[in-house]
Amino acid sequence: MASLTRFDHFIDGAGVPPASGEYLPSEDPFTGEVWAEVARGNAADAERAVEAASRAFESGPWPALTPSERGRLLWKLGDVITANADRLAAVEQRDNGKLAAEVVAQVRYMADYFRYYAGLADKVQSSVIPTDKKGVFAYTRYEAKGVVAIITPWNSPLTLTSWKLAPALAAGCTAVVKPSEFTSGSMVEFARLFEQAGFPKGVVNVVTGLGPEVGEALVLHPKVPHIGFTGGTAAGKKIYEMAARNLKTVTLELGGKSPNIVFDDADLDQAVKGVVSGIFAASGQSCQAGSRLLVQESIHDKFIARLLEFMRGVKLGDPRQADTQVGPIATRPQFEKIMGYIEIAQREGARCVLGGRSRPDLGAGQFVEPTILTGVRNDMRIAQEEVFGPVLAVIPFKDEADAIRIGNDTLFGLAAAVWTRDLRRAMLMTDKLKAGTVWVNNYRATSFTSPFGGYKQSGIGRESGTETIKEYLDTKCVWMSSDLDVPNPFIRR
């Protein structure tokens, strides 16, 4: 048997074995083989990493850098990412089973996130505030919060870490990253590249392991004032509750049950592609997945027929092969959860018109066929709970008001899409849908230039765009007096 790749923690610029001496297995979702072992961290490891990040924030070269100098380091990091993109993507793809072509594209695009915030690092401008007080003036300062804990899931670990880490570093923070125990390898490999870009030791640290053993220790640590988290809503609520004990700030990008709404005047062929992209790309393992398809009643049967025709012949298989379109589910527990939801939906009255089965004949059998369920009511569990897999719930609607009612009738509000040629209708829908992102005649487009986040139980705060950097900054107001004579000290000025 070939020796396993070992990933230790990365703390203070070096690989560090776990304090417990224990490691977790990392399985290839396609082959089912254990290919690596990942350090199983605990509170002692988290403490060591936070202390390293705290030292780097308080003293040494990092706090002495000007914002422009931080920007140059971030730009250099973008170049280093580009040079190592294929290697990073290969590790991540083996960890989570996503299509190799998509992972490579994601990692290459990730470099642009750091370049974008490189340019923004020295453009956070304070302001002089006109006041009603004579003899004084006031101005604002923006100061880095300190050590940021970044906790990310298994579906796109490097991308989702970058959405938090790039603005945090641009703001002047330091970081401890806790990736999912299922997909830690790529983050450890990435952390090793920071030295090549010229970052001081301790600015970026990685502690791997389980949420209750590492994540909670980071969230509760007194030297961590801010937590950035992407993951399920239940875990996000728990993190929010723990952070509230010490009034920490958070950014939470959580679950979704996003409506993909097709009107009868839409370009149906383009809408079919948008529906497929929204739910079957990445095997549906995306927080922004368009898992509820709302189709106007007048075109319901015709549209479903076109959708089924498009999906015939879709290739499932080895995600490393260029012609594979749907890969395996990333983890065994997630695979079992998806299959359970398909069964629940049919018990509640939904009809399975495509897929609905696992594929034990492919790889290690961790495959779920792209599944389309019709006859779905919006009060069914399949329409209200996040499945996080290639399962589409189809719900008919009558008119604009009905589509708005159904679209908003969920605890989530991460994303939505509208397919129509009518500009008035598009404007109405974008105004009334309660979602952080609304696409019109497209789906799944994101950029480092545009904010992303959710309404309701889909999260708190925004990632990407110019305003995100302020999530990692505290605002200080400074009052300067030019009076030579101090006014009456017993009266508030």
TrEMBL record:
Active site residues of this protein: E253
Domain Aldehyde dehydrogenase: 20-478
CDD domains, sorted: ALDH_DhaS
SUPFAM superfamilies: ALDH-like (SSF53720)
Reaction catalysed by this enzyme: 4-(hydroxymethyl)benzenesulfonate + NAD(+) = 4-formylbenzenesulfonate + NADH + H(+)
Coiled-coil ranges per UniProt: none
GO MF: 4-(hydroxymethyl)benzenesulfonate dehydrogenase activity; oxidoreductase activity, acting on the aldehyde or oxo group of donors, NAD or NADP as acceptor
InterPro entries linked: Ald_DH/histidinol_DH (IPR016161), Ald_DH_C (IPR016163), Ald_DH_CS_GLU (IPR029510), Ald_DH_N (IPR016162), Aldehyde_DH_dom (IPR015590)
EC number: 1.1.1.257
Enzyme class label: oxidoreductase
UniProt keywords, alphabetically: Oxidoreductase
Protein family per UniProt: Belongs to the aldehyde dehydrogenase family.
Quaternary structure note: Homodimer.
Function summary: Involved in the toluene-4-sulfonate degradation pathway. Does not discriminate between the sulfonate and the carboxyl substituents and can also be involved in the p-toluenecarboxylate degradation pathway.
Protein name: 4-(hydroxymethyl)benzenesulfonate dehydrogenase
Organism, scientific name: Ramlibacter henchirensis
